Amino acid sequence: MNQSLTTPSSPRTSLLLGIFVLFQLIFLPLANFIQLVPREMPPERGELDIRLQREGTVTDVRLIQGAINSTGTAIDRWGEVSGQPQVWSLFAPGFPTQSIYPIVEGVFPAGFFDDRRAIQPRIPPDPDHYFRWPSWICRLNSYDYLMAAVMQNYTEASFQEHPEEWRTEIAERVRRQQRSLEAYFRFSLTMLQEFYPGYPTPSSMILRVKIVPSPMPGTRERGQPLVVFVARWVPDRPATDGFLPIEAYDPVQQRFVPLAKERE
Amino acid sequence: MSVVVVGPIPRLPRCLEWFATPIPAQRVAAWRIGTGLVLLLDLLMFYLPMSKQLYGPKGLAEPGVFADRFTSPKWNWSVLNWLPVEWGYGFALGIWIVAAVLLTLGCRPRLMALICWILSLSFYNTNFYLHNSGDRIRHFLLLLLIFVPSDAAWSLRRRPRTSEGTTLVSGWPMRLMLLQMMLMYFMNGYYKMLGRMWWDGSVMWYVCLDVAWARWSAPAIPYWVYQGLTWFALIWEVGFPLWVGRKPTRVPALLFGVAFHLMTFFHLEIAAFPLYALCLYLPLAPWERLARRKTDVT
Lengths: 264, 298
Known about the structure:
The complex is a heterodimer. Chain A is an alpha+beta fold. Chain A is 37% helix and 16% strand. Chain A has 7 helices and 6 strands, in the order ααββαααααββββ. Chain A has a 6-stranded antiparallel sheet. The model of chain A has no long low-confidence stretch (mean pLDDT 89). By secondary structure, chain B is mainly alpha-helical. Classes of the chains: A alpha+beta, B mainly alpha.
């Protein structure tokens, strides 16, 4: 066999490529394993993000903790710039024992009108006998899920035990997701008006979450589905000074409450 | 018969030179074609039909829903921020689709991979809630393709144009992808091990009976089957570095991975995640045998 090896690239290209490969070789394991080492992180703000990093301190020695913090920060920034955040935890540490769906409804003088069910029939009428093809709404499902995610573990028993915790949890989530919730309401209103052009603008729009419990392992019987309120938006209301545009549902008082822009 | 190594070989420390040992060009070409095809499917099926609602005016990303992602100290970025919202997303999506087609065909694949990577990251950051881990795999696949001569085989504009014998390219991308897979599965397995449901074996039961995630209602099979699947998946994930590191278990572990991702693509509502994960497997398959068989036939 006649072998002729050809490498037409310049030494500079090889060097630069070598630096990139070496950097990636260090970055990938480091970005994964540094998550297990406690470090001080800035508080999360804005819409939800994904973060697996253990927070806290590993030592009282500032020099060491500072080095861990700085390394973690550098890793995070490279992950963001290059699109490689190392966040791998699919279905971990557990999986929800109930399914959740957001339902956005317009409130008219005649009563509720559920726009999304008409447009996007995702909720199977019989959860034990259904089939769905892969469809173009797959990506929208991710958005839908995050609108409803606050109620993922909500049960009536849990609410009876911890009503104040649920009140705070819903209010905090609605506060944090103000922008996405407002966009979601506007998007739902646009869809409603496109599909039903004759309808007037609803006086308000309400986000509820339908919860469908899964059967206990080894059984086939599901608990009764539950529908719970989360948030409300009033389309024509002028911006109110001092309050956020989306109101949160208070399950203790059983009414929607405005959220102050500035915390008291 | 000659052996030609196309493209740059990275200069690495002596102890790591094995990392760049050349591999057949067909493996890299298969990775490029697979990634290009999955990207095209993703764009045409999951982005294009709803692009206006997802990225347009009054859409789910407007006005500035994810603006905090672009503020200090974060370094996220998006070229969509520089374009008018009225037509910017459509224009960018058009370019993205054209670049994905050219990438698949192997026409200036490095430039096309760069364009696809820029737009992939931009669409991801501009409407973050639409995306999942599969999209981060997509960024990784495209980022590496920027540095690889993936047109050395099976491309419209092959470079070098003529080459008799065997064409090789540096094997660092394949090994980096394998490292990414090992870390991805191991970390998934590690976090799963922290959960009680993975130990009692109930996770697959709840996955299959979740009406939001599962595309069809679960068949009436005994609970112990679900438990077995749960434990098998956990052992496979957490032990993945070990399984692929040992020759006797390598091929079965990889084949299980392929079957697992195919199953999840059809069964679960997770968009193109499993397909991008499958692209990581492409350089590991002996595609050169296919090329050799074709040569033998002709």
